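dude i think i finally got it to work??
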Amino acid sequence: MTPRRISVPTATRAPTGETSAYVLGSDDALLVDPATLTDDLETAIVEADVGHLAVTHHHPDHVGAVAEVARTFDFTVWARAGRSAAFADATGLTPDRTFSPGETVPAADGVAVVDTPGHAPEHTAFAVDNGLVAGDLAVAEGSVVVGAPEGDMRAYLSSLRRVAARAPDRLYPGHGPVVEDPRATCHRLIAHRLQRERTVVTAVADGATTADDIVDAAYDKDVSAVRDLARATVVAHLEKLAVEGRVRWDGERAAPV
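look at this
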């Protein structure tokens, strides 16, 4: 089963300005991440006889058209178990059914649910024969934002390691082109996060105490256009480092151990 990818314009911070929705299967198919309902997406829905809808996570640039699509086509709407209320808050729609990692959504002859938290606490991927519909777990170029308060850096790195160990043929991401080398990409993203972590530790050791001061010290490029994301990322790193006992962080100020 090769996912059908439909890129739709949406209000996203991703450089592409688009989110990829995916149709899995061709009979009672599963639609993943409908951010915007376009003519192309509607055509794909009709051609594949879609009967189910799910999302990788609840961020607006992945769920923007969930309610519109579900009501237009009368889909069975799925949400992650334990996250139904958050799903409803994000989409305006109460899910019909729930899934848990390791289970199979009974659509398109069965789509396996894979636990990939980190970018968001409920983040989920969907396994198909030749790969993984991976949402915002990974991108072919650049990196993924893992920012506090929702982002969990420890969980994100664990998710990347688990997916690398699965060694899928391809990753089908929420933004940008298909990832043709999943293991190498996961290892690249892990290395990037660990390198950023080292710069955060060094910044704290050198006397930076606030998240803003650490951003200034830890980034060697101009991040003024995305400073809020850089700050949220630094805080996520500080939370990880504090749990590991490598820095002290009280939510406002950091200090060396």
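Helices lie at 39-48, 60-63, 66-73, 84-91, 153-166, 182-205, 211-218, 227-243.
im so relieved honestly
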